[in-house]
Specification:
about 250 residues; alpha/beta; Rossmann fold; 7 strands; binds NADP nicotinamide-adenine-dinucleotide phosphate
Length: about 250
Amino acid sequence: MTGRVVWITGASSGIGRALALTLAKRGDRVAVSARSETGLQHLAEEAAGFAGSIHPYPLDITQPETCADTVDRIAGDLGDITLAVLNAGTHHPVEAHAFAASDFAKLININLIGTGNCLDPLLKRMIPAQKGHIAIVASVAGYRGLPTSAYYGASKAAQINLAESLKLDLYRYGIKLQLVNPGFVKTPLTDKNDFPMPFLMDVDEAAERMARGFDGRSFEITFPRRFAYLLKLLRLLPYRLYFPLVGRITRA
Ligand SMILES: NC(=O)c1ccc[n+]([C@@H]2O[C@H](COP(=O)([O-])OP(=O)(O)OC[C@H]3O[C@@H](n4cnc5c(N)ncnc54)[C@H](OP(=O)(O)O)[C@@H]3O)[C@@H](O)[C@H]2O)c1
């Protein structure tokens, strides 16, 4: 046992699920949240015999009171949360002609406001204690605008800015704030994509990269590296070069 208590949201599938298993194998006690109770229960059973353990805390991150109650219950049952990975999220690709304010609000409510609903009770505990570690899972899709990504990209860009701002503010309280920006990782979320995904990464490899990143000092944890660096270069381009280039690449 490592003595760490880790809380992962969005752990019933994909990246969150793989990360929970990776950390429990390493000896962490992992509290897992998502809406699907059965998904979390199966996950907990899979960890039987691991050095650490997995504990289900079903939760809808769009409900602020439930988020606060969950943080209290985890602390009461397992001890203070040492690391919180705010990973729950969704994707809804949209063409401009189908843009709908209600769908936009729904996605922002999960990806962005949901992150805030989890941050609120975490910070209320961590700031007075002057310790803690939070990782926000955004995406390289938040670096710049991409086709069909108006809802998702906006939520991820906002998460990146949120993490940067909090990083600066939390420094003085001794709280570690990290930002995770994955490229394409094979999960149920990307299984819906009907276009070629460059450098698509296996989910267990992604979980491994995150686990290693949490032990390190870098603010940003991003993978696959080559894809992320390519997108970082695109981020530097002026609009007059960015739009024709990305338009041409993504139409291919
Ligand atoms: N896969 C990629 O290529 C990729 C790339 C960049 C960033 N990301 C980010 O990584 C995170 C995980 O994505 P993934 O690919 O692992 O997707 P996924 O397999 O679809 O998993 C999403 C998780 O979020 C949970 N979730 C969704 N809405 C929720 C809500 N309202 N309350 C609580 N939990 C909720 C889902 O569980 P329930 O449905 O049971 O609630 C599920 O456990 C997301 O933030 C995503 O934007 C993924």
